[in-house]
Recover the amino acids of this structure.
């Protein structure tokens, strides 16, 4: 692994901040960029060059709003099953 980029059998994958998650984007916009540790509160995903439709949540995020939104999504899945 180098600079967040991983090469696995000819394909590339990388871990990035999840900009598809509305609560995560809202938190990122609030960041004043003075506290580097704030990044650890955010949700991260892994994306793959060989499979652009594939996304894996690698770090669900530690911020309270992210934990609440994950809990709500999990509850919705249970109800809809």
């Amino acid at each position: 692994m180098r600079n967040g980029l991983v090469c696995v059998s000819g394909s590339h994958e990388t871990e990035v901040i999840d900009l598809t998650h509305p609560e995560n984007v809202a938190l990122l916009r609030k960041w004043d960029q003075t506290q580097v540790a704030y990044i650890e509160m955010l949700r991260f995903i892994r994306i793959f060059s060989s499979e652009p439709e594939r996304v894996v949540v690698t770090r669900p995020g530690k911020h309270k709003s992210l934990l609440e939104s994950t809990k709500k999504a999990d509850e919705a899945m249970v109800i809809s099953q």
Q: What stands out?
A: Confidence is low (pLDDT under 50) at residues 75-81. The chain has one domain: 5-80. Residues 64-80 form the longest helix (17 residues).
